[in-house]
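Subject: Interface between my chains keeps coming out wrong

I've been trying for a while to get a sensible model of this assembly. When I model each chain on its own everything looks fine, but I need the whole thing in one frame so I can look at the contacts. Pasting all components below, labels as-is. Any help appreciated, I'm running out of ideas.
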Amino acid sequence: MWYEGRTLDHIVISHRIRLARNLVDYKFPVKMNQQEAYEVIRHLKVELAQLIGYDFDFIELEAISDIEKQKLVETHLISPLLSQIHLPTMVICNKERDISIMINEEDHIRVQCMQGGQSIQKTWETASKLDDDIGKVLEYAFHKEYGHMTSCITNVGTGLRASFMVHLPMLSKTGHISKIFESLQKLGIQIRGMYGEGTKVLGNIYQISNQLTLGRSETDLIAIVKNVTQNLVEKEEYIRTHLSETTKRGLINKLYRSYGILRYARELSVEEAMELLSDVKLGFEMGIYDFKKPSHNLYEMMLMCQEGVVLSGSQSIKENIPLNILRAEHIRKHLEI
Amino acid sequence: MWYEGRTLDHIVISHRIRLARNLVDYKFPVKMNQQEAYEVIRHLKVELAQLIGYDFDFIELEAISDIEKQKLVETHLISPLLSQIHLPTMVICNKERDISIMINEEDHIRVQCMQGGQSIQKTWETASKLDDDIGKVLEYAFHKEYGHMTSCITNVGTGLRASFMVHLPMLSKTGHISKIFESLQKLGIQIRGMYGEGTKVLGNIYQISNQLTLGRSETDLIAIVKNVTQNLVEKEEYIRTHLSETTKRGLINKLYRSYGILRYARELSVEEAMELLSDVKLGFEMGIYDFKKPSHNLYEMMLMCQEGVVLSGSQSIKENIPLNILRAEHIRKHLEI
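Reply #2:
Try treating it as a single job with all components included. I did that and got this:
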């Protein structure tokens, strides 16, 4: 996985480029029946397996368990929607799992490229090249005037969504965030939870992305989202470095306690675990603790406490151990240095 | 101190015998003026210094700081009342600090003998012998029919209060305690906080003692309090060993978290610290933790988090560090194995 064993402990955890594409010879997924959906999958399997320079795994979602599906959602390889669709669907991933192509989600093809940190330019180049390469072997539904045709009107045009996943604990704790987000929404910037559309905000992690994709070039869209994110980072940093003596003292106490609870709790819900890990991430970034970071990065640990990831450990279901106990165990083990 | 470096981690933390005595040649303390109070102190200093077989320290309360007084209260060598009286007062202690004699509290003389654990018989013998020894050199105010004369009517007779300090976390957590205490009060048993009359219950520690001292022999009074205490111990133990699976799971989680907070918190109020230490004491006694006990016993640590004890450390006041920060530091240091 792209996030494993890496230093990701910054405000910008990761970023992602997503391109929505459809094939000209098939109905949009919302209008397809079983048979037609199968045909799309078969067709894409054959064509994309031949792309030179890629080494893809083809995972048909019918063939895997619900827990495995959930794990794919939690590690951002597929959207929650893809895991729920009743038609045949597929995800195509490279070995590093920083490229994933969802088949038969809202659109026939959704190319996703993701990376840790802030440098989105290289990721955009990867996505763009992959898009070109696919475009050479398949014919996209493309309108001269409007651009790429998509199921949902908001994706028509470039079909691009650029997003940054940011950790904003101080903006959240101080309550500044709601006002900021209100004004960003007016500017066409979408703020969502860690797992996109309609998902809860967990651990003060937000996805910042463009709302519309039409009427602007890809590089413009990316630049807008990047600037907004950079601005949020500066605001978050400003608060962190301008705390009053009293607030800082309270924060230190709070962040140490959060670490203590994570280190010793025997049961943790996902909400609490995410909140505590958010505190611990903040504590390390602010240099508050007098002990060393764990070898796993904190974002990795946040993913580790998601239900599917926790349950996909082999013994868990057989032994009928409650999820909250398993999660706490998981975290304790990985918090060690 | 009697409680230092000893294994006291049981439900009955300690017990105490207290004898109220007055001198026949002086007015009761409530009626004394400064001069008369001084005379009592001078007189007792001379007489008790000559008692053979005792090695006493004589501490006049006027001569020590408020923090030192508070520390004497917190370590149970004097009552909160003695630290507040405006007349000259004194406490006489042996080196082990398991004998303390308060002078000019409610009565001229209050002999106190205390020990860890449950075996009150030996402590009673010590107190009784000391009482006899004092009675040989001083004349007590004694009435043939009523017995020892005291300021407060409840102490007339034997002047004896036998008390046990018990830690009843499960009876408290389950709420059983209020009903039990109600019925005990009807039987003439008094239940009070850790520092006696009018003090708050901290850390689920209660003082169980006889209300009246008249009309019964000393051994009868002691036997009654002892039986009541034994009964409470059995009730507490019953709950600890008859928890449902679910309750036990929740308890384990709670007790581990309490340990984690104590181990990492940077600020702790006395109430919270006592509550957490109570949890940790329970956790060790129930064999819940997968790590070793700290070398200090938990009761010792409870005393360590009291204000006077915390502040009597030298650097604390000079450096103007908030009490809650000092307390947390104190506890962290002593929680280490």
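Reply #3:
Confirming on my end. Chain A has two domains: 6-239, 245-334.
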